[in-house]
Amino acid sequence: QALRWIFISEILVNPGDAPRSAVDLLHSYRFGETRWALTSLEKALRDGSEEERRALCDELGGLLADIDATVDARRFALQQLAVFGGEGDIQHVSAAIHVAGLGSDAVRALASIGGQSAVKALAEMVRNAEPGAPEALVALGATGAPEAAAAAQEMLEKETFRDAALAALREQGTVEAVGVLLGVLEDQDTDRVDTMVQALTECGTDLLERGEQAQGQRALEGAWKSTCSLETRLGALAGLIGSGKDELLPELLALAQHDVPRVRRAGLSLTMDTVRERGTGWLAEAFAALPVDLQAGVIRAVGGSGRASEASWLRALLPKLRGVVA
User: Fold this and answer.
1) How far apart are CA 181 and CA 158, in angstroms?
2) CA–CA gap between residue 170 and residue 197 (Å, rounded)
């Protein structure tokens, strides 16, 4: 409150030398000090007209270029430009990548602003292997740009970039990313198979959610047929069954009866989820041959689903139960 009155009185008494806006007060801000300038700018950006927001973003961009402004002030400017900035702010944001303490915020801002200029700046940073390039690669994937898959594929060959490349492909979640991941999985000497399968599963799920059924199933099938652990592949199986691959339902029941306890528990959980989602029609005559613990799990799932249509199935089942406790 005191700083606010100082700000107002300075403008009234000595307008020639006074700060002209909250951006001017932001110039010397350090973490832990009063946040009046920050909250004022946040409100103005949130509630202002498009023209007012554009003017404030221009001022924040100018602050980024001011070497006398504090790092905390410029970090705040980057965070706001990530939300409200546009193509015209890319030059200032890109320059901030090379300022100590601001690289990560600048990369995130570029990814958030998006557009061809942002993609070009991130791709150039990756190509030149500049400090922070792995983070830039992940951000490039988050933009969804087609260039991201090619850049990630190239960086997969470099040990120091491999984790970032996989994260970029996972973030991208496109057909191109799936193609790269499937190609890498074919190399039996590759490491990080579990991470690749997780990335494929996430890409496949994203594609299904966007209505790209065939491509989503292609990604999930690649993950399910991979050589990694069963626990890691279960997510792909769940996605495939959820997308209509009913031919895999017997494999689900087999997993729910697996010899390894943790696999069996995971298979049982997925079976119960499937029953809650789809009912018991898919079980047909297989239910009678299931072990008691799996039968009990199915009955609990039916009870938890609240499906009135399953009441007749339960009534018909009662005389046949072999000590199953629901």
Assistant:
1) 15
2) 10
